[in-house]
Amino acid sequence: MSDVQLIEVGPRDGLQNEQTLLSVDEKVEFIGRAVDAGVRRVEAVSFVNPRRVPQMAGAEEVMERVPRLDGVSYIGLVLNRRGLDRALASAVDEVNAVVVATEEFSRRNQGCGVADTIAAAVDVVRDARAAGIATTVTIAVAFGCPFTGEVEPGWISDIVARLADEAAPDEIALADTIGVGVPAQVRDLARRTAERAPGIPQRWHFHNTRNTGYANALTALESGASALDASIGGFGGCPFAPAATGNIASEDLVYALDRSGVTTGIEMQRLVDAAQWLGKALDKDVPALLGRAGAFPAAR
Q1: pLDDT at 298
Q2: Cα–Cα distance measured from residue 153 to residue 54, given in angstroms and rounded to the nearest whole number
Q3: What are phi and psi of 268, to 5 degrees?
Q4: Are 228 and 203 in contact (CB under 8 A)?
Q5: Which among 253, 273, 186 is positioned nearest to 225, based on CA atoms?
């Protein structure tokens, strides 16, 4: 296996479905703890309507106060031109636009159809590139939809091709938003994506809803992934997807990668400490397992 970037999405996807709302101070501390652990790409904020997703309120204030260090890149999730304007004004380093792959989920999540989300993502990528900002487009519910069921992989590859042809983002991410995917699907989508968007790095986003997230992440890495999303503590979920539980946990993933000889540059114990801090802030048990079992061999 090769080296891989771990993208910490806890400050965004990890918090967006939690009932406890963190303050700006707490969000900044959370991000700082991730950076202190060695994370160098953080999906720090989401520029969405705070009335719809109150957990993401205060994005501008968070970005004003995050630690600005050489080599650390902050990502803002955006859905449209207004979100991009807010992101650019907040001096993000990257933007992540979202295309939802099914009509029903797209209308519930973003209030418009798939074609509209593709067009919006293309516009975001073009305008962000003109502003000198790196771009990712994430294809949500790429493995399955909670409302309409199976998603045809050929349809996902058609979306990939359109994004590559019309926008050519710096990165394409495929997201198992509700945690239904298995490694065979990962291999298939990785192959299709490489064929339809040659030369564009692949990023992958997995949830562990059905206990397949880590197997999927390792399969994506073997299939050529350049980046994997994970969330400290394994917190997270989509507020518009019923029963969508947490992301794969950053510390559990780093353990698997370290033991597999994959370099991440991230200190596992600092992630465990950050997860324990976050669990207290959210008044919830930490879903991740590493903090309970500890590393192996045990530290002396």
Answers
A1: 76
A2: 33
A3: -60, -45
A4: yes
A5: 186
Residue 232, classed as helix, strand or coil, is: helix
Which positions ≥6 away from 50 have C-beta within 8 Å?
Answer: 56, 57, 58
Task: Give CATH for domain 5-293.
Answer: 3.20.20.70
66, 238, 253, 278: which one is catalytic? Answer: 238
CA distance 274 to 90: 25
Q: What angle do CA 81, 99, 229 make, to 5 degrees?
A: 105
Q: For the CA atoms of the chain, what is the radius of gyration? A: 18
Q: What is the DSSP string of 48-77?
A: S-TTT-GGGTTHHHHHHHS---TT-EEEEE
Q: Are 7 and 43 in contact (CB under 8 A)?
A: yes
Mean pLDDT by 10 residues, the chain (300 residues): 87 94 98 98 96 95 98 97 97 97 91 94 98 98 96 98 98 96 98 98 97 98 98 86 81 97 96 98 96 85
Is 238 labeled as catalytic in the residue annotation? yes
pLDDT confidence of residue 299: 63
pLDDT score, position 245: 73
Helices (H), the chain: 24-36, 59-65, 81-89, 103-110, 114-130, 153-166, 183-196, 213-222, 250-259, 268-282, 290-293
- Alpha carbon distance 8, 30 (integer Å): 11
Q: Domain residue spans in the chain?
A: 5-293
Closest CA to 228 of 35, 39, 20, 15: 39
Provide the token pair at 191: 């192959």
